[in-house]
Amino acid sequence: MKKNVSFWLFALSTMILAVVWACSDDGKKGEVPPGPDPEVPDVVMKNATVYGLVKDIDGVLLSGVKVTTGTLSAITDANGAFRFESMGTVNNRTLFRFEKAGYFTVTRSGTSSEEITLEVVMHEKGNSDISTSATFEANSGRLLTVGDIPAAKVVKSDGTAYTGTVNADMLYLDPNNETFNEMMPGGDLAAVRTDNSEVQLVSWGMVEVSLTDGSGNALQLKEDGTSVMTFPIPEGMESNPPETIPLWYFNEETGMWVEEGVARLEGNVYVGEVNHFSWHNLDWPEDRVTVKGTVTNCNGPVQNIKVTVDQTYAYTNSRGEYEVYIPANTSVTVRILSEDYGLLPGVAHELPGQAGGTTVTRNLELQCPRSVTGKIVNSCGEIPVAFINCEYDHEGRTCTMMPVKTDRGGCFKLNAPNINGSVVLRFTLSTGTTFIRNVTLLTGTDITLPDIEVCEEGGGEENTMLILKEEGESVRVNFAPENIQMMWSDTVLMVVCSESDDESCLLTINGFNGNNGSYRGNITIAKGTFVLQAEGITVDVVLQTDGKYAFDVSGTGEYMEVNGSSYTEGTAQIFGKIVASLSLRIEVLRDVENWEDTQLGEDFPELFTPVDALVRFSGQTLQTTTALGYINRPLSDYTEVKSRLADAGFSIRVNEVQEEGCYAIVYQKGNTVVIVGYDPNGDEVDGWDEERFTLLIYVGTVDETTAVTDIHNSYRTLHSKIQKAIQACKQKKKKKEEAAKKQPLFEVYNSMM
Question: What is the pTM of this model?
Answer without folding.
Answer: 0.56
